[in-house]
Amino acid sequence: MEQGTLMHVAGVEVRRGPRTVLRDVDFQLREGEVVALEGPNGSGKTTLLESCAGILPLTSGSVTWRDGQAEVVVRDSEGRRNEPPPMGLTLQSDGMCGEETVEERLLLSLAVSGRGQNAGAISQMLSEWGLEHRRADRISHLSGGQRRRLAVLCGLA
User: Fold this and answer.
1) Distance of alpha carbon 78 from alpha carbon 151, whole angstroms
2) Where are the alpha helices (DSSP H) in 63-132?
């Protein structure tokens, strides 16, 4: 992996049922880059993101990421799989239960990511994202924009 490369996707192919969704995908994600993933509905954008996160099995190819100086396989077509890279992933469907409170969802996200559950830090995060006043509210009572902000915040947590 080249110096400055965080993630390397090489020869990735993914099938969903009998359909090949991704074929021969190659790219490197470098430190400091901002990347936009564009394409029409059904073109494989979500499949690519889920593959890079190690969620989906690969038909061929590999996804690796840099952990310090070491290169770690996230997932490959031979079935090898390691912990996914330390990244947040927020997809179209946020997977949040409407009965949870804003605070409960954020606490769960922090617990899953291995970060502490400091009350002061939680207040600061919610405040920065304009959600502090909705802390005890059920997710089902949030507006669409507030729900999306919470989903992104949890993805970054």
Assistant:
1) 33
2) 102-113, 119-128
Biggest CA pair distance of the chain = 50
pLDDT digits (tens, 9 = 90+) for 56-89: 889 999 888 877 677 777 777 777 777 766 666 6
Question: Which residue is it, tokens 């946020």?
Answer: 94
SS3 99: coil
Q: How far is residue 87 CA from its own chain's centroid?
A: 6
In sequence order, what are the residues at sequence separation of 6 or more whose Cβ sits closer than 8 angstroms to the Cβ of residue 76?
A: 58, 61, 62, 63
Asked if residue 112 has pLDDT above 80, the reply is no
- Which residue is associated with the tokens 């990421």? 65
Position 92 scores a pLDDT of 66
60: closest CA among 23, 93, 30, 86? 23
Structure tokens given for 154: 């949890």
User: Do you know the residue count of the chain?
Assistant: 157
Residues with Cβ within 8 Å of residue 16, at least 6 apart in sequence? 47
Query: pTM for the full model?
Result: 0.60
pLDDT at 26 over 80: yes
Beta strands, E only, the chain: 5-16, 19-30, 60-67, 70-76
